[in-house]
Amino acid sequence: MKSLWPAFVAASSLLCATAQAAPVIGFTGDFAPANWTSAVGTNGATPSADASFLSITSPRPDGFDSSWTDFSIVVGAAAKISFDWSYVTSDLDNDPFYDPFGILSVNGFTPLSDDDGDASQSGSYSVVVDAGEVFGFRAWAIDGDFGTATTRVGNFRVDFIPEPTTLLLLAAALAAASAAKRRGTSRV
């Protein structure tokens, strides 16, 4: 029994560390709206968010200028981020091409709205983000003359991904417990 003590301590420590990595549901905790950065484009509105949803509208720059509104955050630990989105454009010709919505990541801007789609669109999306990377949402106005688009983001969820060292520690603790059990059994 004495030889099981180090394995028990290692496994307990690992379980405590893993328990701290509970998923974030909604715009809460480290992902609460106050922790995000807003960059509002010309004649744009600040995104509105609460614990359950985010609403972001494309700006309305003068003339045919391009501008965007971003809502972004630096992610503290590797995570899978998933959410649902619902988009509608009020562009005069109901053309989503001029007001795309998408995400910001290490790969730049990834559009989620379909340029050739309907004026009203929706979907679900997931992306894996590494620790220290910026993740965000962008409402982009390619021109400012014909209307804006608004997207509502809901069912926001962040599932943290254990680091490889955490997994190695877990494997080592399990191996030590197994070896200690075998040694204890062989002495009987």
Briefly say what this structure is.
The strands form 2 sheets. Strands 1, 3, 4, 6, 9 and 11 form a 6-stranded antiparallel sheet that branches. The chain has helices at residues 5-19, 164-186, and strands at residues 24-25, 37-39, 48-49, 53-57, 67-74, 79-89, 101-105, 108-111, 120-129, 134-141, 149-160. The chain has 188 residues and is an alpha+beta fold.
Structure description:
- With 188 residues, this protein is of the alpha+beta class.
- It folds into two domains: 1-21 and 163-188; 22-161, Jelly Rolls.
- The chain has two helices and eleven strands.
- It has helices at 5-19, 164-186; strands at 24-25, 37-39, 48-49, 53-57, 67-74, 79-89, 101-105, 108-111, 120-129, 134-141, 149-160.
- The strands form two sheets. Strands 1, 3, 4, 6, 9 and 11 form a six-stranded antiparallel sheet that branches. The protein has a five-stranded antiparallel sheet with strand order 2-5-10-7-8, with no helix packed on it.
- A hairpin with a 2-residue loop joins β7 and β8 (108-111).
- The longest helix is centred in the last third of the chain and has 23 residues, at 164-186.
- The protein is elongated and about 80 Å long.
- The mean pLDDT is 85.
